[in-house]
# Entry
Amino acid sequence: MTEILQKILLAKDNRANMRKTFSAKKKISISFSLNIASYPKTNKNISQFFNLILTDLKNFLLANKIFIDNNSEINIIDEAGNFFMAIVKNKDITYSEIKQITEEFEENHKLGRFIDVDITDEDGKNVSSHKKKLCYFCNEKPAIVCMREKTHSYSELQTFTLKKINEYLFLENKNKTTKELSAIALKSILYEVSLSPKPGLVNFYNSGSHTDMNYYTFLNSSSALSQYFTKFAELGYGFNEDLSKAISKIRIIGLQAEKDMFAATNNINTQKGIIFLMGIALFSASYVFYKDVNFTISNFQETVKKVCKDIVKNELQNLKVYKTHGEKCFEKFGLKGAGARLEVELAFPTVVNFALPVLEKFFKENKKEEIELALRKTLLAIISENNDSNILYRKGEDALEKLKKISKDAFIDDKKYDKVCKFCIKENISPGGSADLLAVSLFLHSIKKIKNEF
Ligand SMILES: [Zn+2]
# Structure
């Protein structure tokens, strides 16, 4: 133990010398370290914690107009743990003013008592705030007293510290993941509706085969839905029950989302289908990010299968009375008319097998024309394979098969796209189910790029 202590003291001496080099230049410096009751003083999680708080600290300083000299930054790991130091550039501020600001940061931070921000003045003196921090473990006596009196055992402190840090990291990672996933979900539905023209579907130029909605109706409902995308993802991240219990919980959020959609569109059903599909996709993707180090399509599919197990049997086959469009479509066409429920029960086969390879090949983020070509091709690939219940319900099997056939032709020859659009107008049909799957495809294509840092 004494050997370890010596190493730590040596590291602290080195830090003091670094401070001296800054004060020798007559500069105020700011340094940041953690109060960690464990040895080694750092590990992968503690380093992640340190870096997250360092980012918060830098933002806080910037917001309070304290400027640090980026060229002077030192960010090291030594025997005493993680350590950051930099010169303050401001000329018109006193060290005690800076100290006041950094104390506000420490006091307001959730784990502020683990944080030590020190200010060293131009003469190399450490500025003390004269405030005694409470011990983070018992929250009763000043930290310095508990330390001196060895009130708490080393292993108590260590367990407590690591637990708090892990809880903090879990929440930070949950926030980061759900924020990213919901932004991508919103982006995906906006890309889908913006592709113009589109066969029978609402787009920027016209409303396709629809008379009760337009492009702006979709913007209204998409805006209303965005907050629910976050909720679906939050439910998935950290979900600790059996996955078969998830669907009813996803549905509760879905029903709230539908209500807001109808309120935003004057009672027009613009995106009920996508609420269902994206809700399941968001939940499952978020769950995978929580459970696994990296996101893979096969882990995603495995999760969706568990979430949606027997959904066709439970929600269609076992019905006594068939009421909604989707239910009636199943009553008439059997599994071919099982629509979105069959697609999720089988874990998005149309998306994974037919749409994702097309996006992989054609999607480039740069030019508008390239994005449009990729979206068009992907939509056609989906329509060519999908038994869209919107069309089955409205026009039956002949119209569906004809649409699939001409979409396949247009996939090969882009010039025939217009023919598909005209066919849908003539038949007064709109492949809304396929449009929803295009949005899910874009979602899955985009999230593969997210890196899990936890
Ligand atoms: Zn204590």
